[in-house]
Amino acid sequence: MKKIGIMTTGGDCSGLNTAIHRIIQGARQRKWQVWGILDGTDGLYVNPPAVIRLDDMMLPIENARLAGSFLHNGRADALNFETAAETGRIASFNKRLHKSLQELALDALILIGGNGSLSLAWANRGTYRDVQLICIPKTIDMDMPLTERTIGFDTAVQQLTQFCDQLLLTARSHHRWFVVQAMGRDCGYLALHAGIASGASAILMPEIRFNIDDLVKRISDADTDYGIIMVSEGITLRGHSGRPADMISRKLNAAGITNRTAFPEHIQRAGDTTASDRILATRFADCALNAIENGETYVMTALECGDVHTVGLSDFVASGECISDPHIPELLTSNAYITPDEPLLSVARDMGIYIGEIK
Ligand code: F6P
Fold first, then answer.
1. Would you call 141 a catalytic residue per the annotation?
2. In the chain, N or C: fewer CB atoms in 10 Å?
3. Whose CA is nearest to atom 16 of ligand 1?
4. Could you write out the DSSP letters of every residue in 137-196?
């Protein structure tokens, strides 16, 4: 009988509970024992480790669709890989985590995390040397290399789309535009997908250069006087500061275009998990359990051309664009972005949606 652990780290998203539920479900078929680590790496840092034995009763099926993580993702003020490195305590932090894993006598640990969590797990891989480390990618940002989908993205698109759907009704009543600021960090996928889904008139993404005068002209010349202008939180406007939606809104105001800003914020990480995210979470959970059975370690589950399989964490960190932590340059995160060959870009352009200049 194997003993496995589950840990959720980084920002939450909808679909984490489905993944946890399906891991428990699949482990039961194999007669394995499952332990949940509470509050991400903090659950391994505290002494004794903060863990709970997971069985079907703890996470009933009707709760598996709820957003957030039943195991928590960690407190903002807790020591983690980043803050430990920043304050010169990384060696003792890693030592404590390793000791906890030994005390728990886990055969395998399933880490459900984003690009930061997985990159940091690889950078500090010695900590996991005595367990099989299997990672499952999750994030609403869709900024992870080597997988075409991450858990939580589809639900975030749905949440943001519904938010825009509601705004459009009041926008129409008052003949005004809404500048909606999407999350996604430096990646425009969420803005692009929800923008297309909600019928936005313009979508601004960090990866695509745009011209503010062209945008203003496009909106002024539009054959409608209301609609959505989707703005990714990662865009910048030379010579301007403040929140991206506010910057764009000010420019529209200056041109006499009546508009308001709207900030869906963390609602994008909430919401009942969509069927698509539940299926992905189930496939990733199954793949992770199979990987444990096959004796794999330091791998991540990935979706590629409809197939779910594992890829090495070393390949994952090598294939993204490496971004340095602002405080600790040697801490690199593997990031992915929209590329010019993204099919939705040409679809948007063909539909007359202003997206800037794709080369
Ligand atoms: O990475 C997920 C994400 O939701 C980003 O899209 C967003 O910029 C950030 O996390 C928000 O972080 P916090 O929850 O710390 O405000």
1. yes
2. C
3. 266
4. EB-SS---TT-S--BTHHHHHHHHHHHHHHHHHHHHHTT-EEEEEE--TT--HHHHHHHH
For CATH 3.40.50.450, the residue range(s) in the chain are: 3-152+273-319
Ligand 1 pocket (Cβ < 6 Å) reads 11, 139-141, 183-185, 233, 269
The string over 344-359, giving b where at least 16 C-beta atoms fall within 10 Å of a residue's C-beta and e elsewhere, is bbeebeeeebbbbeee
The closest-lying atom of ligand 1 relative to the alpha carbon of residue 269 is: 4
At 220, list the tokens: 């002024």
Position 326 confidence tier, pLDDT thresholds 50, 70, 90: confident
The CA distance from 93 to 89, in Å, is 6
Six-digit token string for 268: 């994008």
CB distance 76 to 13 below 8 Å: no
Ligand 1 pocket: which of 73, 140, 335 to mutate (most atoms within 8 A of CB): 140
Residue with tokens 């075409």: 148
Domain 157-269+340-350 class, CATH top level: alpha beta
Average pLDDT score over residue span 116-131? 97
Closest CA to 9 of 37, 46, 48: 37
Catalytic residue among 12, 42, 141, 277: 141
CATH tag, 3-152+273-319: 3.40.50.450
Reported confidence tier of residue 359, pLDDT bands at 50, 70, 90: low
Burial-class residue 253 by CB neighbours within 10 Å (0-12, 13-18, 19+).
Answer: exposed
Complete edge-to-edge strand list for the sheet that includes strand 307-312: 51-54, 33-37, 3-8, 108-113, 132-137, 299-304, 307-312
Letter for the amino acid at 352? G
Using CA atoms, how far apart are residues 323 and 335, in angstroms rounded to an integer? 7
Residue 183 CA to ligand 1 center (angstroms) comes to: 7
Q: To which H or E segment does residue 44 belong?
A: helix 42-45
Burial of 52 (0-12, 13-18, 19+ CB in 10 A): middle
Question: Boundaries of CATH 3.40.50.460 in the chain?
Answer: 157-269+340-350
What are the φ/ψ torsions at residue 128 (nearest 5 degrees)? Answer: -105, 20
At 105, is the pLDDT very low, low, confident or very high (cuts 50, 70, 90)? very high
